[in-house]
Write a structure and sequence with these properties.
2 domains; 6-stranded antiparallel sheet
Length: 318
């Protein structure tokens, strides 16, 4: 029986979603990973030194060529990719819109490993918004990349439950591992010539926009459950924050739901006992069990109360 020809693959991505794909392709040994493309190094850390993304570091440690174009659709980078003669480009959380000139390079097309059950949650922040909206299920889709964002035919899809205590930091690595396994199945099919996908239902499409810093500002008019879900989805960035009565910033790291009478207005402190202040929401209340005041380290809510004169009846918020 004749061996299946190896696919020449370029991987484009960044961060936690892309690293398991690289490791999975190399571990399987069935295809040839010819190059990796990541985002340019960005300043970060206390000294604001330029730091490579995790995928670039991993690629270099594996001896793979690593590119970091400022514009992946600029002709110099497209020419570099053309010279590699890839059969397939695989994308995962790359962070740039890929134009037609780059998409035309690989012989079999470009596929994206996207952490949602498309057509739900197209866009830049699908995991974050699935959590923020209180979804109990998400998943991974492998689809063709087209000029319209996350709208290509789906090659494979698999659901994944969202636990009641899942956060972005716990859910992302689970979906990354699932995506690597799903991609392996797709690559097996591609080597057998099975490259057809299924069109998405445009009527069911929803969009997960990119997060902004202001998304972390707690809107106390929302139901308590929604406020907690947004914290689950928006940690570590932009996180959740509010303002104390003296207008200083208070970052919220952990909270739990509480039941209090609905008489207090949203943002009103309704209890200053126990393991943190309880604050009224539009429906219900939340207790702030881990917080970080401005200029301080993170601390339990009870420790915060011992050091701050927060009183029941005071209001938090902008």
């Amino acid at each position: 029986m004749q061996a299946e020809a190896k696919l020449r693959i370029v991987l484009m991505g960044s961060g936690a979603l892309a690293c398991p794909l690289l490791e999975g392709i190399l571990a399987a040994g069935r295809d040839e990973l010819v190059a990796v493309a990541t985002q340019p190094d960005r300043a970060g850390g206390r000294g604001l030194h330029c730091q490579p993304c995790a995928l670039k570091t991993l690629a270099q440690n594996c001896g793979l060529p690593a590119f970091a174009p400022a514009d992946a659709s600029a002709e110099p980078f497209v020419a570099q990719m053309s010279a590699l003669r890839p059969d397939l480009i695989v994308v995962a959380a790359y962070g740039q819109f890929l134009k037609a000139n780059l998409l035309a390079v690989p012989r079999l097309g470009t596929v994206n490993v996207h952490p949602s059950l498309l057509p739900k949650y197209r866009g830049a922040s699908p995991i974050q918004w699935a959590l923020a909206n209180g979804e109990t299920e998400t998943g991974v889709s492998v689809l063709y990349v087209t000029p319209k964002m996350d709208a290509g035919d789906v090659l494979a899809q698999e659901a994944h439950p969202i636990g009641p205590d899942d956060t972005f930091c716990t859910l992302e690595p689970k979906l990354a591992a699932q995506g690597a396994a799903l991609l392996r199945d797709v690559l097996d099919r591609f080597r057998r010539g099975q490259t057809r996908g299924a069109p998405q239902d445009e009527a069911r499409a929803t969009f997960a926009r990119k997060l902004a810093k202001d998304d972390g500002c707690v809107d106390w008019r929302l139901p308590a459950e929604t406020i907690r879900n947004r914290l689950r989805g928006f940690s570590p960035w932009p996180g959740a924050f509010t303002f104390l009565p003296d207008r200083t910033l208070l970052k919220i790291h952990e909270m739990k739901l509480e039941a209090f009478p609905a008489a207090a207005g949203p943002g009103t402190v309704v209890d200053v006992a126990g393991d943190g202040p309880a604050v009224a929401a539009g429906i219900g209340a939340v207790r702030l069990t881990m917080v970080r005041p401005a200029g301080k380290k993170a601390m339990p809510g009870a420790a915060f109360l011992r050091g701050h004169r927060l009183q029941a009846g005071e209001r938090l918020g902008p």
